[in-house]
Amino acid sequence: MKEKYQLKLYITGKTARTETAVNMLRRICEEDLQGQYLLTVIDILEHPQLAEDERILATPTLIKVLPQPLRRIIGDLSDREKVLLGLDLHPFPPTTGDS
Fold this sequence. Notes:
By secondary structure, this protein is an alpha+beta fold. It has one domain: Glutaredoxin, CATH 3.40.30.10. The protein has three helices and four strands; from the N terminus they run βαβαββα. The chain has helices at residues 16-33, 48-53, 80-86, and strands at residues 5-11, 37-43, 61-66, 71-74. α1 (16-33) links the parallel β1 and β2. Mean pLDDT is 87; it is low at 93-99.
């Protein structure tokens, strides 16, 4: 069985930008990780010490804690390919119908 992905998404407040990032990440997780993930969304306005501990300089910032290696993705998460690459998930090549 594959190891579950442990993800932390750092955001700043409830804005249209943060909602877009959260929604996009949840869509990617559901479609590509198929339930094999734990996502924690951390608002740095509510938990500034957590952001300081992780050295968060910009939001949104996504940290892939597990599986190793640790990865960080900074930005709005709208570039699906960039997010998949950052999570070490490579898009599967199209199938040729030879199942």
